[in-house]
Amino acid sequence: MQTILVAGAGKSSIYLIEYLLENASRNKWKVIVADGDAKVLEKWTDRHSLLETVVIDITRAADREPLVKKADIVLSLLPPQLHILLAQDCLKNKKNLITSSYASVEMKAMDADVKEAGLMFMCEMGLDPGIDHMTAAKIIHSVHKVAGRITAFRSYCGGLVAPESDDNPWHYKFSWNPRNVVTAGMGGARYLHNGKVTEIPYEKMFEQNKKIKIPGLNALAYYPNRDSLSYLQTYGVEDIRTFVRATLRYPAFSRGWDAIVKLGLTAQDDSIDTTKLTYAAWLKTKSNCKAKTEIEAFVAEKLGLDAGGKEMNMLQWLGLFSNDLIPNTGTVSSADILLGLLSQKWQMGPKDKDMVVMHHEIEYEHKGKDITLKSSMVITGEGGDHTAMARTVGMPMAILAGLVLTNKVKTPIGVVIPVMQSVYKPVLRELEHAGIAFTDEVE
């Protein structure tokens, strides 16, 4: 019997675990799910005869390593900074590893040792990054196969609230790790446009608010995502003129979030004493508003906003101008205060549904003609824990694990991401069978 260790049972785990359990008896798999929160594991207790749940402190090697030793493969849905702990255990004990997060500098530094050990450390195997890489590689390879020259590549992805559950002025609710939303874009962004490298600092990231129309949806806005240039060589398009990876939001969100950033409310490096502190007082401190000045008028003037406009109404709806007390959590950062507030305001209700949208646009030349290929995916969640985000993040990981364990895929060696045909072809085929598919349009 083979053993699969799933580390992390949070928001993105439900489809992954269910897929493994659905296939456990037939393939003789034992599934161990480990998490630091006993309450999170309660829903899995006694769910399946081949399932074991374990409460552990993932930072303690004495808790972690015995589970890695038992496993034939390890799937990590931990916060990104914790993957490296499992990676070190996997290398030591010669176990394959799959994560959904970006390959960190520390993870990449292990590549030579991982190759020498003959192991696969597959990173970026979720939605974005993950499905975006696989579908992009499939398209790019197919264009190259017919001797087409790719001139532009644009890829967009976003986790959004479904239209039927869109009932707040921000047009947003959390369907994945809230902290990742609060810290999004902090490293700035780089991309290629018409042959020129464009760099956008964090402070200007959400000013862009450029629009895109995707079939079947109202207009969405996008902002550039991280360092797109780091994927030029990986995708095999070093001579391309335009290359950008971007995140999708509804247009109102970008305008409101631009105000949040400019007010300094996402800062992680400040120290705020929350003792008897109101949201209005916090905002006054962050915006350098004098004590007796009306905070709403001050913010509107500082940001150049219409006092009765949409952006000010969005800030008002969050309660940022209120005299409500911030929960006393001692001295924390502004990002922590904002995270606590948004976790209440942007919480998905029991019947709410989320939506995942991914869209590629590839321009290429073939036999003297200019061609544009548009490829789109829109997935709506089922409600509750069964979100579109959990489905599209967890399923690629689960499918690859199953393919590796049943020897139905040529396992790549090293610290890699899923851009090789031997991986993306069978995984995308299985995802399509599971209803995660793209619609293509050629112009």
Structure overview:
This protein has 17 helices and 18 strands. α1 (14-22) runs parallel beside α16, α8 packs across α17 (421-433) and α11 (251-262) crosses α14 (310-318). It is of the alpha/beta class. The model has no long low-confidence stretch (mean pLDDT 95). Strands 3-2-1-4-5-6-17 form a seven-stranded parallel sheet, sandwiched between helices. Among the domains are: 2-123, Rossmann fold, CATH 3.40.50.720; 271-332, no CATH class. The chain is globular. 35% of the residues lie in helices and 23% in strands. The N and C termini lie far apart (51 Å).
Task: Using brief descriptors, characterize the structure shown.
about 450 residues, alpha/beta, globular, 18 strands, single chain, Rossmann fold, 7-stranded mixed β-sheet
Q: Give the overall form.
A: globular
The strand count comes to: 18
Largest beta-sheet characterization: 7 strands, parallel
Q: Structural class of the helices, strands and pairings?
A: alpha/beta
CATH domain topology of the domain at 2-123: Rossmann fold
Number of helices: 17
Beta-strand residue fraction: 15-25%
The strand line-up of the biggest sheet is 3-2-1-4-5-6-17
- Report Rg: 23 Å
- Please bin the fraction of helical residues: 25-40%
CATH architectural name of the domain at 2-123: 3-Layer(aba) Sandwich
Question: What is the residue-mean pLDDT, rounded to a whole number?
Answer: 95
Q: Enumerate the spans where pLDDT stays under 50 for 5 or more consecutive residues.
A: none
